[in-house]
Amino acid sequence: MRYLNLLIVVLILSASANARADLADDIASIPTKASAPAAASADAPAPAPKELSLLDKVAKFEKGKTIYSDVVRELGQPATLVGNDNDTKTATYSNISGGLNAAAYIPIVGLFAGKVTVKGSSATLIFDKKDVLISKTTTQM
């Protein structure tokens, strides 16, 4: 029985070593900026512009000028839309993303060295009875 337990531990450790080797091969195959071509040809299409974050989009909205339909056109339908007693409405938007570091995928090692990363932002926009923006609040996590 003792030898069976030892064999199981050896198999687990060797599987971990194989996983580490596979992970190292995967990481080595990722192209870096240094390996990218030095100059793009004139015929190559321009790179797509970077998508603005929720906070950047909300920063463009102007109190007293931006209307609800402009916000929906830019951000889509809100996560929540609440009608308030004073004839205003509150729209909330949120954006949350997360991921694991590479160590989290390695058996046993992931239990100790694995890390979860979560990032997010939210925006609360209040509109008057004419659908004009009167208040905006943003939060970054």
Name the shape in a single word.
flat
Task: Report mean pLDDT, rounded to a whole number.
Answer: 76
Q: What gap, in angstroms, lies between the N and C termini?
A: 51 Å
Strand content: 25-35%
Number-wise, the strands total 4
Could you list the spans in which at least 5 consecutive residues all have pLDDT below 50? none
Number of distinct helices? 4
Quaternary structure classification: single chain
Helix fraction, binned, reads: 25-40%
Largest sheet properties: 4 strands, antiparallel
Q: Which structural category fits the helices and strands?
A: alpha+beta
**How would you spell out the order of helices and strands?**
HHHEEHEE
Total tally of structural domains: 2
The strands making up the biggest β-sheet line up spatially as 1-2-3-4
Rg to the nearest angstrom? 25 Å
Looking at this protein, list some descriptive labels.
141 residues, alpha+beta
What does this structure look like?
This protein has 141 residues and is an alpha+beta fold. The protein has two domains: 1-29; 53-141, no CATH class. It has four helices and four strands, in the order H-H-H-E-E-H-E-E. It has helices spanning 2-28, 54-59, 68-75, 109-113, and strands spanning 80-83, 89-100, 116-127, 133-140. It has a four-stranded antiparallel sheet. The protein is flat and about 60 Å long. The relative contact order is 0.17.
Give a nutshell description of this structure.
The protein contains four helices and four strands. It has helices at 2-28, 54-59, 68-75, 109-113, and strands at residues 80-83, 89-100, 116-127, 133-140. It is flat.
